[in-house]
């Protein structure tokens, strides 16, 4: 049976589905096949059951429309994605402009003006990476300088693909 999630209470672990017959059905997160994809207005398939309290749904699965997902200007075929992960890494702070690149007029003007304090070559910044591993092609790597990582993750969360979050939640390094 098919339906649409009309309400979801993440803190309580349950929600409601409006099925194809306009009947409201209860579902619990424990009965969802891809729980990270649960969102209001998501289209789902499920197995209908009747509980003592009324209609319910089990084996709930969020359905995906389309064959591709777009992140930045990259068109990625959903069935080509094997796994995706997020991690952080400390990298040298990039301050220089490459010879043939003008990032912005403001940055160009800062290069022309005398700089009073220069960052040391040892200055590091923490950069977040989103790596999308593909089955038959090289992985695609995005950084937090290029895209909004959390927004990209919200789009990927609908996919039935494994995800690893390796971000450091306590940056003590």
UniProtKB/TrEMBL annotation:
Stretches assigned to the CSD domain: 1-62
Organism: Thorsellia kenyensis
UniProt lineage: Bacteria, Pseudomonadati, Pseudomonadota, Gammaproteobacteria, Enterobacterales
One Pfam family, short name: CSD
Domain of life, source organism: Bacteria
PROSITE patterns: CSD_2
Protein name: Cold-shock protein
Record-linked SUPFAM superfamilies: Nucleic acid-binding proteins
């Amino acid at each position: 049976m098919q339906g649409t999630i009309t309400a979801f209470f993440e803190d309580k672990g349950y929600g409601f589905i409006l099925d194809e017959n306009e009947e409201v059905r209860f579902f619990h997160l424990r009965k969802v096949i891809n729980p990270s994809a649960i969102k209001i207005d998501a289209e789902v398939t499920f197995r209908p059951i009747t509980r003592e309290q009324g209609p319910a749904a089990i084996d709930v699965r969020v359905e995906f429309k389309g064959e591709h997902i777009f992140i930045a200007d990259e068109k990625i075929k959903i069935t080509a994605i094997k796994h995706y992960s997020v991690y952080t890494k400390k990298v040298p702070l990039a301050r220089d402009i490459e010879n043939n690149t003008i990032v912005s007029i403001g940055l160009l003007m800062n290069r022309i003006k005398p700089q009073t304090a220069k960052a040391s070559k040892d200055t590091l910044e923490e950069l977040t990476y989103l790596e999308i591993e593909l089955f038959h092609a090289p992985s695609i790597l995005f950084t937090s300088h290029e895209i909004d990582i959390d927004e990209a993750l919200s789009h990927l969360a609908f996919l039935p693909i494994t995800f690893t979050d390796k971000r450091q939640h306590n940056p003590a390094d």
